[in-house]
């Protein structure tokens, strides 16, 4: 499908939000975007409404659009529910995936692997996000897919340090994550629901400490999110 200024604006804003090129809570200037992309105000507002519906931005009456913020409440809710939704999506993906979707997943994994080898952080963020989006598409569930999409936005933003490893241990964790993706593909091909769900929790544990590195400097008590109620809920669901 040919790219248009409108589709370019949509894809660019999504990418910039996921990769933190646009900070949480950043204002979006309708006039400057209209000029930059050669669009009138109406299609820009259409894109804003679409992105707002998908959870990327927030449109405030008489105050314009802004990148969806991240705050204490956002983070708490994310850590409480993300693994459970990922596990439910994984189980349904095994039940409902189409061969073409598995092929898409494999191609996305190869791009993710190449990005990890090149230490291309922005490409890793986007390909990892796409990998998990495909799981949502495989699930075919109209209730869970929007929730997954919203979670993935914050997962990319909170976990961006994972794709910028600062030491050998973080590099090792990144390679384990690449291996997890391969194992997801194998488990899907084998129609093994339990293996996929087990992998979901392993994958989550792997990235959790790196996410904590992102939020701890902001004075947020990650321990409160990563243990207690969240842990109890995960144990009950496993």
Automatic annotation (TrEMBL):
<dbReference type="InterPro" id="IPR000524">
    <property type="entry name" value="Tscrpt_reg_HTH_GntR"/>
</dbReference>
<keyword id="KW-0804">Transcription</keyword>
<feature type="domain" description="HTH gntR-type">
    <location>
        <begin position="3"/>
        <end position="70"/>
    </location>
</feature>
<dbReference type="InterPro" id="IPR036390">
    <property type="entry name" value="WH_DNA-bd_sf"/>
</dbReference>
<keyword id="KW-0614">Plasmid</keyword>
<keyword id="KW-0805">Transcription regulation</keyword>
<dbReference type="Pfam" id="PF07729">
    <property type="entry name" value="FCD"/>
</dbReference>
<dbReference type="InterPro" id="IPR008920">
    <property type="entry name" value="TF_FadR/GntR_C"/>
</dbReference>
<dbReference type="Pfam" id="PF00392">
    <property type="entry name" value="GntR"/>
</dbReference>
<keyword id="KW-0238">DNA-binding</keyword>
<protein>
    <submittedName>
        <fullName>GntR family transcriptional regulator</fullName>
    </submittedName>
</protein>
<dbReference type="InterPro" id="IPR011711">
    <property type="entry name" value="GntR_C"/>
</dbReference>
<dbReference type="InterPro" id="IPR036388">
    <property type="entry name" value="WH-like_DNA-bd_sf"/>
</dbReference>
